[in-house]
Specification:
It is built from nine helices and no strands. It is mainly α. It has three domains: 4-117, DNA Binding (I), subunit A, CATH 1.10.30; 120-148; 158-221, High mobility group box domain (DNA Binding (I), subunit A), CATH 1.10.30.
Length: 279
């Protein structure tokens, strides 16, 4: 049986993407029998990843549970299905697992056909897109972690302070419209009027500096030195490396003339041998 924690993660995921399931009709398990579909490259996209055995079961049971429990929340419905999955015997799970295996095999065939029809430039573009998506996911996870640890918010600029103060009264019914209106209002302000918001922004920098110092000290106490900024240490390391590089250059320059001078002296000090030419 699938671990309960894994099923809980799947339940949360399915609850967030509830639209993928159809609640119109009851889907029977027979519809998940392995059917080989010919892959068409005209769609322009890769084949979709197949569902696991558990997700196939969820997709089948969702309309049934919804009909039986019309008043409970979507998350509770998925949790209920997860509990049912735990109680199934291996024989009950077998049809879903066999359908999942067949779908994975078809997915490999379709993916190979898709990759074979790509040009090198397209393959490179897809690889770059995957790299960017992976980096974006890492950045999102990092941001969530820092937010959960209470990292102070960055200081606001003078325009940010002005925008927060006048956003509600700004013209426009949409966000882009309000932003455009606020930007035009900001440009029309005099230097003395902008100075008020500039000072507030400077005060916010002081706030950020103090809060970051306290937060980094707390992170150090928790053993999370990896989250602490090390600008000074990086500068010292860079200065040290630069100093070492200069020292090596000086040593090389000092050694090079000595070798040349010694060679010249040796050549001049050696007596010339008489030529052995015949008279």
């Amino acid at each position: 049986m699938a671990p309960f924690g894994l099923m809980t993660v799947g339940a949360n995921f399915l609850a967030r993407s509830w639209g993928v399931f159809s609640s119109a009709v009851t889907v029977r398990c027979s519809c998940f029998a392995p059917t080989l579909k010919s892959f068409s490259t005209s769609t322009g996209g890769p084949p979709k990843r197949p569902l696991t055995a558990y997700l196939r079961y969820v997709k089948e049971q969702q309309p049934i549970v919804v009909r039986q429990n019309p008043d409970i929340k979507a998350v509770d419905i998925v949790r209920k299905i997860a509990q049912q999955w735990r109680t199934l015997t291996p024989e009950d799970k077998q049809p879903f697992e066999e359908a999942s295996i067949a779908a994975r095999e078809q997915y490999r065939i379709d993916m190979k056909a898709y990759q074979d029809q790509l040009t090198p430039a397209q393959s490179a573009a897809i690889a770059e897109e995957k790299r960017q998506k992976k980096a974006k996911r890492r950045a999102i996870r990092k941001k969530r972690e820092l937010n959960s640890l209470g990292k102070p918010k960055r200081p606001r600029t003078a325009f940010n302070v002005f925008m927060a103060e006048h956003f509600e009264e700004a013209k426009g019914s949409t966000m882009p419209g309000k932003m455009k209106s606020l930007f035009e209002d900001w440009k029309s302000l005099s230097i003395s009027q902008k100075q008020i918001y500039t000072q507030l922004a400077e005060d916010d920098k002081v706030r950020y500096k103090n809060e970051m110092k306290a937060w980094e000290e707390h992170m150090t106490e928790l053993g999370r030195e990896d989250l602490v900024r090390r600008k000074e240490s990086r500068r010292k390391k860079a200065a040290t490396k630069k100093g070492k590089k200069k020292s090596r250059v000086k040593v090389l320059k000092a050694k090079a003339p000595v070798k040349k001078t010694a060679g010249k002296k040796t050549a001049s000090a050696e007596p010339k041998k008489p030529s052995s030419t015949k008279k």
